[in-house]
């Protein structure tokens, strides 16, 4: 029975087809300081077989996979091929940088990320440092440019930190879930439960006085131990502010340790990291993992129903859905993005292989931008990337007012996407063709790195390819490539 359960799990994650996992197998072996001969004895196979597995000349079979999971205590998903999709996208962007003038074929890209993932990750990290250094040099020679660049880079560091963790922080998510049980937080009563917890556990009084509309959303006075929350916030928003402050009391040492150990460049980035980690804890406290995942599965990820059930907003639910990647209890792996009308991405997190470009903006054909033309409506799109991978996206606008007449509000488009193979789990796919005959929109990661030369929406020419320049003809394509 024990082996039968394991086989079912393997089948569910896609090991029916041939799976090559040489890089992950080598990583596992070297991490235990084992030789190929040691691993061969443990798995009861020949050393030459181990060598063939690590060089991807033979696929990983079910019997060998079961022995590996039993011997090393790893989840079978550790060897899943889709784990490299994010790394492939990152490395592709490195070689698409026109400043490097380099080129790499898809075959070479696959070989690098599959067989030498550590080298690929190091390459991506070095490229990011190179870009940061280049931006700083440009800032030094541009009038008033230094302060602007310095203010942007720390935020990028925080985004990278959560991206590398697949937007899941177990060190905070699990204790937040336990605290929600201790505080007996229930949907519809979260704000009052958090206020009671702040008072009972930390002697903090919560009030709505002292904050004018349009100023701070919340303010904590450590001397008086008073937490003031803006009266313009909706109950769910106010609960989140209370939870983020409670996070600093309850998980302060863990947050400090994570911020100190993270790859952050300075005090500004570490300070932003503490805020980001506290907000993560707050989301996990207001929407406890297993309870939220269970309801999400029961509602088939219907965001409107989840908002009503938990008493929080559309953006909060979407952001939490993108974090459900706990081992052994995973939800649909989502990518989450928030953009404004000008195309600026102010939030982006991903638990999938979908890659958000850092160069040249996002694709104008992406449904996230179309959402602004249909305020309040939930739009859907099947989007195909140049590598053939398809994603199912939903998008909707959200509006934030400040409560005072004449004061400008904020309008954003929220996007939530997953690989197309997960789409049938979502209520938004009902009635849509997802297989043959599906309406698919070809998109790219951004015009500067997109590999679609014939796209009529291109804002930049294809990097590394000559243009067709003919004064006697014109085309719909703005940057036609040479034949």
UniProtKB/TrEMBL annotation:
Record domain HTH cro/C1-type: where: 25-79
Any Pfam family: HTH_3
Any single GO CC term annotated in Swiss-Prot or TrEMBL for this entry: cytosol
Record bears the keyword Transferase: no
Domain of life: Bacteria
Any GO MF annotation of the entry: DNA-binding transcription factor activity
Alphabetic keyword roster: DNA-binding, Transcription, Transcription regulation
Signal peptide span: none
Family (UniProt): Belongs to the short-chain fatty acyl-CoA assimilation regulator (ScfR) family.
Protein name per the record: HTH cro/C1-type domain-containing protein
Organism name: Kutzneria albida DSM 43870
């Amino acid at each position: 029975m024990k082996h039968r359960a394991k086989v079912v799990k393997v089948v569910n994650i896609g090991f029916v087809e041939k799976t090559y996992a040489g890089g992950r197998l080598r990583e596992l072996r070297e991490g235990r300081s084992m030789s190929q001969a040691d691993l061969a004895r443990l798995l009861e196979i020949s050393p030459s077989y181990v060598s063939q597995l690590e060089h991807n000349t033979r696929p990983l079979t079910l019997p060998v996979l079961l022995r590996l999971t039993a011997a090393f205590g790893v989840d079978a998903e550790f060897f899943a091929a889709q784990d490299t999709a994010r790394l492939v996208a990152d490395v592709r962007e490195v070689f698409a940088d026109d400043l490097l003038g380099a080129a790499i074929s898809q075959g070479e890209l696959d070989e690098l990320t599959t067989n030498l993932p550590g080298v690929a990750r190091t390459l991506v990290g070095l490229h990011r440092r190179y870009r940061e250094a280049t931006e700083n040099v440009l800032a030094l020679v541009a009038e008033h440019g230094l302060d602007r660049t310095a203010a942007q880079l720390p935020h990028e560091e925080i985004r990278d930190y959560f991206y590398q963790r697949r937007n899941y922080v177990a060190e905070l998510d699990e204790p937040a879930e336990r605290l929600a049980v201790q505080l007996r937080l229930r949907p519809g009563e979260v704000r009052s439960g958090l206020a009671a917890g702040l008072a009972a556990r930390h002697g903090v009084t919560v009030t709505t006085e002292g904050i004018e509309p349009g100023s701070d959303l919340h303010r904590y006075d450590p001397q008086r131990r008073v937490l003031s929350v803006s009266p313009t916030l909706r109950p769910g928003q106010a609960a989140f502010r209370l939870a983020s402050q409670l996070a600093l009391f309850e998980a302060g040492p863990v947050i400090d340790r994570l911020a100190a150990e993270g790859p952050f460049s300075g005090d500004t980035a570490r300070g932003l990291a503490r805020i980001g980690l506290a907000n993560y804890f707050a989301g996990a406290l207001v929407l406890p993992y297993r309870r939220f995942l269970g309801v999400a599965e029961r509602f088939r990820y219907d965001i409107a129903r989840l908002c009503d059930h938990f008493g929080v907003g559309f953006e909060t639910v979407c952001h939490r859905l993108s974090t459900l990647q706990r081992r052994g209890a995973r939800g649909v792996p989502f990518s989450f993005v928030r953009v404004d009308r000008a195309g600026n991405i102010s939030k982006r997190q991903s638990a999938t292989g979908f890659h958000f470009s850092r160069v040249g903006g996002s694709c104008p054909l992406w449904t996230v931008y179309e959402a602004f033309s249909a305020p309040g409506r939930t739009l859907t799109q099947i989007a195909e990337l140049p590598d053939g991978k398809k994603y199912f996206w939903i998008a909707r606008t959200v509006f934030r007012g400040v409560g005072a007449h004449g004061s400008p509000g904020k309008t954003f488009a929220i996007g939530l996407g997953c690989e197309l193979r997960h789409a049938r789990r979502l209520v938004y796919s009902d009635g849509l063709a997802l297989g043959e005959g599906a309406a698919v929109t070809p998109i790219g990661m951004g015009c500067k790195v997109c590999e679609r030369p014939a796209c009529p929406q291109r804002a930049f020419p294809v990097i590394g390819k000559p243009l067709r320049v003919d004064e006697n003809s014109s085309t719909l394509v703005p940057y036609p490539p040479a034949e």
